[in-house]
Design goal:
Strand content: 5-15%
Shape: elongated
Strand order of the largest sheet: 1-2
Low-confidence stretches: none
Number of strands: 2
Helix content: 10-25%
Order of helices and strands: EEH
Number of helices: 1
Largest sheet: 2 strands, antiparallel
Mean pLDDT: 83
């Protein structure tokens, strides 16, 4: 299993390919996904 980059109680942060991480997670175990796309996508 992919290890979290940062972890606290009820919180895990992963720095990895999202498809690999999501494939290893239990179904219905995610409350939120935060994505930070590259800057200047509209240019």
């Amino acid at each position: 299993m992919i290890k979290p980059y940062y972890q606290k109680q009820k919180f895990e942060l992963y720095d990895s390919d999202c498809l690999k991480v999501l494939a290893e997670m239990k179904e219905n175990s995610i409350d939120m996904i935060f994505a930070d796309p590259p800057y200047f996508l509209s240019i």
